[in-house]
Design brief:
The chain is an all-alpha fold. It is built from eight helices and two strands. It has helices at residues 2-23, 29-60, 62-71, 76-89, 96-116, 153-170, 183-208, 212-237, and strands at 141-142, 146-147.
Length: 238
């Protein structure tokens, strides 16, 4: 399984990164990482868009589904039938978004792993294809003053901040807590708060302990995701 992951995802992405460095002589690795991350995200955009659209549809029909759960609490068979009717009426496949996300995960993890284990400015000859061009020089100072091969608190802070804004933009607004809130409601609220406030702090702490190139990838990925969500919502309204 690991060898398949390396051969199908990790090695092609690693070679793509090295090739892009070769095609952009003089560009620092930070600029290359940003361009490479955007390029991969654009390739994955059709899948990401499909998942986002399906999630938006699921949010739209959520009131109907909640009403069915309340009405048929003790009749699971009827509840399932009515739920499927709502899915068919709105042409929603609840499993398609999960499938789309699962397809993307190996590539996303590989992309993260490429920057985590790239070993830049060194090049791992064991991973390089024979036809991949080798760069003569790799500039590690992003914008001339941040060494992305070393730990960077500045880039880690950007990774944490952009993660917060991504969560804030992607997640729906939290409704006021009900007086007789159930355990499920409180659990959902707790998860919401953790995703919005705790996760960015964790990302900052992880990023600050790794090479700055990982934090730069994380930041670029977050900004792209925010822009992607904005574009999808805007086009959906038209």
């Amino acid at each position: 399984m690991i060898s398949f992951f390396h051969a199908v995802c990790y090695e092609p992405l690693y070679n793509g990164l090295i090739a892009l460095i070769s095609f952009l002589p003089g560009a620092d690795i930070g600029i290359v990482v940003i361009l490479f991350t955007i390029l991969v995200k654009l390739i994955l955009f059709p899948l990401s868009r499909k998942a986002s659209v399906m999630q938006a549809k699921m949010k739209e029909i959520e009131p109907e589904l909640s009403e069915i759960k309340k009405k048929y609490t003790d009749d699971t068979k009827t509840q399932a039938e009515k739920t499927m009717e709502v899915y068919r009426k709105h042409k929603v496949n609840p499993f398609s978004s999960i499938f789309v996300v699962l397809v993307q995960l190996p590539i996303i993890f590989s992309l993260y792993y490429v920057f985590l284990k790239s070993g830049l400015p060194g090049i791992n000859e064991n991973l390089i294809y024979a036809f991949t061009p080798r760069p003569t020089e790799i500039h590690m100072n992003f914008l001339g003053f941040i060494d992305v091969g070393a730990k960077s608190t500045i880039l880690a802070a950007f990774a944490g901040i952009t993660s917060f804004f991504q969560a804030m933009y992607a997640m729906p607004a939290l409704s006021p807590r009900k007086e007789n809130a159930s355990f499920q409601d409180d659990l959902a609220r707790g998860m919401h708060m953790q995703m919005k406030y705790v996760l960015p702090v964790i990302i900052f702490l992880i990023s600050s302990s790794l090479a700055g190139v990982v934090a730069l990838y994380w930041t670029t990925s977050n900004v792209f995701t925010i822009a992607q969500e904005f574009y999808i919502r805007k086009t959906k309204k038209q």
